[in-house]
Amino acid sequence: MAGIEPDLPFYPLNIAVLTVSDTRDEITDTSGALLAQRLQAAGHVLAAKAIVKDEVDAIRAQVGRWVEDVQVDVVITTGGTGFSPRDVTPEALKPLFRRELDGFAVVFHMASLKTVGVATLQSRAFAGQAEDTFVFCVPGSTGACRDAWDLVLAEELDSRFRPCSLVGQIPRYRGICP
After folding, report:
1. What are phi and psi of 10, to 5 degrees?
2. Of 65, 98, 124, 143, whose CB count within 10 A is highest?
3. pLDDT digits (tens, 9 = 90+) for 29-75
4. pLDDT (0 to 100) of residue 178
5. What are the φ/ψ torsions at residue 169 (nearest 5 degrees)?
């Protein structure tokens, strides 16, 4: 049965959170704040947090810096995954990926379907691996971030999750986590 094995060791990840928005700032960024709070409550480290405008170059540059930083294991972005003309997160980040994590979008949409119904179709949530860094891109709403963390990422980024989690694919944990 899939689930958390409480007797196994927990290995914390260094996770950076990027909010993509033309309108939010540190005070109004409830989505980035929720992700930061959730990942820290789970025992992970908030490696960095930033807000950038919905612009391809700004998004790509910030995520690119984190991908180059060996201290950052995972990046989670929020925002820019919809269908408005300014939503360009997929266009900005997919060229950085050496592999796409197609299953993330499927599982996110299955979870989101339960909370927002068919409105989940309006999201272009996606994930992939840039160099050795996993990058997860979720919608900008606080509810979507809650769904992404609580229903998908909390388990997938927990080394105790069985039958397996992505933690064993993080370079510093290879060979430690199955």
Report:
1. -95, 130
2. 124
3. 999 999 999 999 999 999 999 999 999 999 999 999 999 999 999 99
4. 61
5. -95, -5
- Report the C-alpha gap between 159 and 127 in whole angstroms: 19
Residue 152 has pLDDT above 70, yes or no: yes
Tokens of 174: 């290879």
Token output for 87: 């939503």
Assign residue 74 a region (left: φ > 0; alpha: ψ between -120 and 50; beta: otherwise): beta
Tell me the C-alpha distance between 70 and 110, whole Å. Answer: 32
CA distance 40 to 48: 12
- Beta pairing, strands 14-20 & 3-4: unpaired
Percent of the chain with pLDDT over 70: 99
Within 8 A by CB and 6+ apart from 11, the residues are: 159, 167, 173, 176, 177
Do 149 and 34 touch, CB atoms closer than 8 A?
yes
Residue 123 DSSP class? -
- Integer Cα distance of 160 and 7 in angstroms: 8
Enter the pTM of the model: 0.96
CA atoms within 13 A on the CB side of 145: 23
Rounded CA separation 70/132 (Å): 9
- Distances from the Cα of 153 to the Cαs of 22, 24, 116, in angstroms? 26, 24, 18
